[in-house]
Amino acid sequence: MPEQTREADVVVIGAGAVGENAAERTASGGLKTILVESELVGGECSYWACMPSKALLRPGTLLQAARSVQGAAQAVTGSLDTDAVLARRDSFTSNWDDSSQVKWVDGAGIELIRGTAALSGPREVTVTDDDGTQTRITARHAVVLATGSVPTVPRVDGLDAIDFWGTREATSAREVPESLLVLGGGVSGCELAQAYARLGTDVTLVARGDLLAKFPEPARRLVEAGLRRDGVRIRLRTASSRADAYDGGVTLTLTAAGADGETGTADTVTGAKLLVSSGRHPALSGLGLEGLGLDPKHLGVDASGRVPGVDGGWLYAVGDAAGKAQLTHQGKYQARTTGEAIAARAAGELDGDPEPWSRYASTADDAAVPSVVFTDPEVAFVGLTEAQARERGLSISTTELPIAVAGSSLYADGYQGWAQMVVDEERKVIVGMTLAGPGVGELLHAATIAVVGEVPLDRLWHAVPSYPTISEVWLRLLEKYGL
Ligand SMILES: Cc1cc2nc3c(=O)[nH]c(=O)nc-3n(C[C@H](O)[C@H](O)[C@H](O)COP(=O)(O)OP(=O)(O)OC[C@H]3O[C@@H](n4cnc5c(N)ncnc54)[C@H](O)[C@@H]3O)c2cc1C
Ligand SMILES: NC(=O)c1ccc[n+]([C@@H]2O[C@H](COP(=O)([O-])OP(=O)(O)OC[C@H]3O[C@@H](n4cnc5c(N)ncnc54)[C@H](O)[C@@H]3O)[C@@H](O)[C@H]2O)c1
User: Fold this and answer.
1) What is the pTM assigned to this prediction?
2) Distance 325 CA to ligand 2 centre (A)
3) CA 335, CA 341: separation in Å to the nearest integer?
4) Domain edges within the chain
5) 13 pairs with which residues across the strands?
6) Which mutation among 156, 168, 187 tests ligand 2's pocket best, with the greatest number of atoms within 8 A of CB?
7) Mean model confidence pLDDT for the chain
8) Which of 19, 181, 271, 342 has the fewest C-beta atoms under 10 angstroms from its C-beta?
């Protein structure tokens, strides 16, 4: 097999959004950086996840927003134009062409090598390209794993014989199926169920537990009602025991749990397509981690993204690969802190562990991760849930209320929303916030600032929300809390 050898200061494996950001930080820190990618530069988020899924959802959300305001509702009498929705989605994925991202990589002074990378020794990466040519790269300072995640396929009898969709196929589909079974009631399942329902697909969503199980119940119920309003049939607390090909489509055999938790009777549902959206796990197999004495199932990283147990501390992991939050923005944050930590260590400016909240530590990963579920209504969440806060031994109070302020009633006729604030009673600061309702995703950053900034409630009381915005829910929460 032909082989070349190269040297660099840093090798980043995986050019998703996260790998790109890590490479940009090490390159701008003066380190010669090689970025390796086996598929498209830009990764999952750009081509098969965030961007196409949000592009599929946005037209339906906008149409519903117009329909929920008298005066505008009369002007929108048609339905979504499916071809136009798909064409707009295609423009957001650049038709699955990564040339503009490659240009960005070049402009950032990063060298791109296409191929599949694996660790072949300490500080050594071997890249195999499509022709079988191998490039062995020695990394003087660091190797960063930014390899993302892969779908976790559930154990359902018969599934391996079915040509089912994963989220990649659902976000890149060229046609809208007549009917769709969605297996998994997490974020992807809920978002894609609604996107397809609004494009005219007859959707059945099967969840083994509740929808969006980690969120508080009133928020979940609002999303459930939104999906049902769009015609999605929802089967909660239902196990899928078997999948069979049926008349060009798929049949799932389901068993609902009885009210008393006992197994109920089995029935079947059918669909032209089956979307399996049952979670993802870090893409760490085949990377040669075992050869370094590491367990790819339990990598673990410190606050600077460094993998423990590696002599010389040259191995890092960021983004989905690191096994923390599977969110683009949080992965990019880790990439920034890790990239800066690598550059600082190489320059002798950082020794040992970084200080929490310094630019070399992703401290917010621990208790201040924001996320938005882009269903309609949306769920926006940051920090700790009530249960997580209690598990950490915090003495907390919760304040919750429906979102019913002048701004929300102007936003949509019959606006329905819900908000919850979790307060650490010892420090009198907000440690968690959930907002549910149309348009609340854009309110989340205020909550993130309050949590990260540990803003005392008696000071937060002076942050006056503009009238009449939905943000007045902050005032109502603080008043209900007792301020
Ligand atoms: C349907 C869906 C919707 C989502 N929506 C959102 C959203 O709205 N907001 C949000 O924040 N998050 C969202 N996410 C999560 C988000 O997509 C991920 O958190 C994000 O893509 C992770 O980025 P990453 O760079 O770590 O990994 P990836 O984007 O997966 O990039 C990893 C890259 O590494 C490459 N690679 C892997 N192994 C190798 C190897 N051995 N050699 C060379 N290259 C390799 C891969 O080809 C890939 O390009 C969504 C996920 C899904 C599935
Ligand atoms: N808006 C966003 O930020 C966004 C959107 C989509 C995905 N994502 C991220 O991508 C990741 C993957 O999304 P996802 O929805 O696949 O994962 P998820 O972990 O959010 O949900 C997976 C769901 O599948 C269910 N499940 C697992 N095994 C099952 C089985 N055998 N039968 C039935 N259900 C089963 C789980 O109970 C869970 O409800 C998530 O971590 C999420 O953070 C983010």
Assistant:
1) 0.97
2) 12
3) 10
4) 3-42+98-150+281-364, 159-278, 377-481
5) 36, 145
6) 187
7) 96
8) 271
